[in-house]
Amino acid sequence: MSVRTEKVGHLVKEEMAGLIEREYRSPDMGFMTVTKVSMSPDLRLARVYISVFGDNKTKERTIFLLNEAKKDIRQFIGSRIRLRFTPEIAFFLDDTMDYVANIEELLKKAREHGDN
User: Fold this and answer.
1) Would the CA dihedral through 63, 51, 79, 8 be positive or negative?
2) Which of 6, 14, 38, 63 is most buried (CB neighbours < 10 A)?
């Protein structure tokens, strides 16, 4: 990944996080955090990874609602970051925290089993 791609990804992540914090909180959506933005090499696509606190239904609903709002979100990002082309945006669920919690639970059970 080039330095420019990383820099633009970081800028998009910062703007996205602020926007979501201010504008996209609702009872239909879980508590969310922008964990990563991956830019395509030509900077025309931003893959935005979101960690969502809640059950599976809440997580799916949150990602769905963000994808439904991506046109407005893209306009906002375009007004805040000066680029030749404003990137298309796609939201994805980042389930890393669920994976980590599952591993921790398995390790805890293994330790408990080993103590017996």
Assistant:
1) negative
2) 63
Average pLDDT, stretch 65-89?
90
Range of the domain at 11: 3-115
Q: What is the CA radius of gyration of the chain?
A: 17
What is the pTM for the complete model shown? 0.79
What total number of domains does the chain contain?
A: 1
Give the CATH number for residue 66: 3.30.300.20
Report the alpha-carbon distance of residue 94 to residue 71 in Å, rounded. 21
Question: How far is Cα 71 from Cα 5, in angstroms, rounded to an integer?
Answer: 22
Give me the sheet containing 31-39, strands edge to edge: 31-39, 45-53, 88-93
CB half-sphere exposure, 21, CA atoms < 13 A = 8
Residue-wise pLDDT for 28-53, tens only, equals 787 888 999 999 999 999 999 999 98
